[in-house]
Amino acid sequence: MSSGMRVQAKAKNGVTQVKALINHPMETGNRKDEKTGKLIPAHFIEEVVCEYKGAQVMVAEWSGGISKNPYIAFDFKGGAEGETVKVSWKDNQGGTDTLDVVIK
Amino acid sequence: MSMKRRSFIKHTLVGGAVAAGSLALPQWVLGEWNKTAFEAKSIDEALNALLGSAAMEESSAVKIKAPDIAENGAVVPIQVDVEGLENIESIAIIAEKNPVPLVANFKCVGQGTSFVSTRIKMGKTSDVIAVVKAGGKLYSAKKEVKVTIGGCGG
Q1: Residues B95, B39, A56, B84: what is their CA dihedral angle, to the nearest 10 degrees?
Q2: ipTM greater than 0.90, yes or no?
Q3: Taking CB atoms and an 8 Å cutoff, what residues of chain B touch A95?
Q4: Rounded to a whole number, what is the distance in Å from the CA of A102 to chain B's nearest CA?
Q5: What is the per-residue pLDDT across B109-134, written as a single tens digit (0 to 9) for each?
Q6: Do B18 and A65 touch (CB under 8 A)?
């Protein structure tokens, strides 16, 4: 499945580290279009969720202050090689994506 | 920019296009974005809305990894490490002098999270503040990041 998102998950000593890169403009709504001088509407990811075995392990809430094409990394206790984590996001305009990744 | 979006989620949205500038909240099953906190212009207001309190205590258990000087304020890597605090509920990242200071809040709803890492925009030189909620209390750390070119403008 093609996706605007890349996710890596690695387990070591019972702890899983998750890293994700998402393609997204992350517009704050305060930036002007250089040609028209009009404000570019806000368009940013509000929430990123990571699930493991059907339960949430991380819920990140963001403002437009996260950089364009956002990066997120974190760890959680649990997870082993061959198991799956699911990462999903949704933005303020209703855009959303989700990706299942096998833990390495 | 093209981005694949799941059609079944599209169907749950009412009306399709969101009018420019409006902040109509889409339906979302996984949680509720804290609009008040993420639109607050002051840190106290944001923390009160987000965590129910703005009373925090500086703690060496919270460590911020960030550059001393960020040449490009549009992309400032920030990592927050937490050591020796039990029952971490959340980790918030604040850029003190941004128009909207609260940049991110990571709810550590799983077990044993010890760090979060991301990249933020900074309008100008200011402190970056990490606020960790653990066991119902707020612990903080701050680090100044000098910004050469601000990352909030055009």
Answers
A1: 30
A2: yes
A3: 3, 5
A4: 18
A5: 999 999 999 999 999 999 999 999 99
A6: no
Å between B63 CA and nearest CA of chain A: 14
Q: Which domains does chain B have, with CATH numbers?
A: 56-149 (2.60.40.2470)
Segment B54-75, tens digit of pLDDT: 999 999 999 999 999 999 999 9
A57·B109 Cβ contact <8 A:
yes
Bridge partners of A85, per DSSP, are A52, A101
Pick from B3, B110, B151: CB nearest A78: B110
Q: How far is CA B94 from CA A35, A101, B9, B88, B123, in A?
A: 32, 30, 31, 18, 12
Beta carbon pairs, A and B, within 8 Å: 167
Q: How far apart are CA B44 and CA B98, in angstroms?
A: 14
pLDDT band at B149 (very low <50, low <70, confident <90, very high): confident
Break chain A into its structural domains and give their ranges.
5-102
For A5-102, CATH number? 2.60.40.10
